[in-house]
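User: Could you walk me through two proteins back to back? I'd like the raw sequence and the structure tokens for each, with a short line separating them so I can tell where one ends and the next begins.

Assistant: Of course. Protein one, sequence then structure:
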Amino acid sequence: MSQYTQQPQFPQAPTPAAQARNGLGTAALILGIIGALSGLIPFFFWLAGILGIIALVMGLAGRGRAKRGGATNKGVALAGAILGLISLIMSVVGAVILFKAVDDAVDDINKATSSSSATKESGDGSAKSDGKNKGKKGKGGAAGEDAETLAAGDSAVYEDKLTVTASAPEPYTPGEYAIGHTKGNKAYKVTVVIDNAGTKKFDAALVTAEARAGAEGVKAEQIFDEKVGELFTGTLAPGKKATAVYAFDTPADAENLVVEISPDFSHDASQWDLKL
């Protein structure tokens, strides 16, 4: 009998593998996506910046963990870090855009306030005669304040050499699908010409027109169809003119039409009393 007894061999259980720690990479990707989307809106530049920094740090940390074998989502972590960097860039761009817009708005308000104060002090808001055409100069103030009512063909001339002219009303037949016309009423069209003889651009898109008809001053609705109703649009460069044709709906017995044209917020509105 052998001196040594052979011990039986039992298979050993495999050592459990360490669980992958992918939390950093996944969190970096999520925060990077949210940060990049926030950066698309300039107002949320601060949120994009905060999330971008966190995503960048967590993404780099997750990538380092993956290199050491502690995680398996190296690509996800790298994507999160890249999105974090993009969020930071968009945050800076958004901040610049937002602050510039605020500065421009403040400058515009200050200019409008200064112009209004200067006009009231100098009395430029009053009407005056300008050769053959009656003119009205000045910016700011209430519409029609100390202003002369103009007649057909007269021009309102402002201190910045912006000139607005309204023609005599002409009878108009609205189209079949016209908007603003009431059956039994009459319609008249008025041609308005804006001449920018100044040195600065004029935003014609801010021009508005209103009208009242008859002795009672009943509001005359503006008519829109395929021929009339197209408003002023775009910017009017110095030395250029723009023309628009307005049509208004009036009671059948109205004998006059008062048309009010307001160039923009910094110019007084001007009125024309037109005989029908």
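----
Protein two, same layout:
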Amino acid sequence: MQVFCRYAPLILVVLGTMVGLTGYYLDMVLRVSFERLLWLGATLLLALAGLITGRMIQRLNLSSLTDFTTGLWNRRYFYLRLDEEEARATKKKAPLCVAMIDVDGFKAVNDTYGHAAGDLLLSDLAAIFKKNTRATDVVARWGGDEFAIIFSETSIKDAHEVIERIRQKVEAKFSSSYDLTISAGVISLEPNQDIRDLLIKADKALYKAKEQKNSVITITEFIR
């Protein structure tokens, strides 16, 4: 379904063109009684309709997978990509890491400055996450003031370093003005590990980090 949505304009343009050219072929070669210009016009109209419809499908699909406030991917897309990345990591025997992030002190910001200011802060945080991760990483808004990141082909050490760098940047930018920081839990996929189990343990790591606040905890730093 995702493949169709991604290439919907091309698929529908090709299908429309094929339908139109089939009619033209019937008229030209088999001498079926259809007006040639009518078929050429129908071909162009079908191709144009396919292009417009395909782009609408693309936009609707994209809007269903993105978070309106931050512009990040949403949880639905996160799950879709996590399944794909897990299958790829297993096949290639490559590392895969997930980070769960929670914003410390966000409720106080909403209570003091209002939800509009809170939404702007979430957008600013999203920009920091995106700027400090790769294009191949999946950065998603998990919900509320929680975020999640999939690090494909990344060791636990490298993933930890990225999240730690993000934590420092958030602290430097928002700690003094809003008393706002982030806590994060980072975990790597183990052989034959279930995705649900992976996320549960990532959430446990996040819980440990939130106990300290403004910290990054990896799954190897505490006994499961």
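Strands lie at 96-104, 138-143, 146-152, 181-188, 216-218.

Let me know if you want the two compared in more detail.
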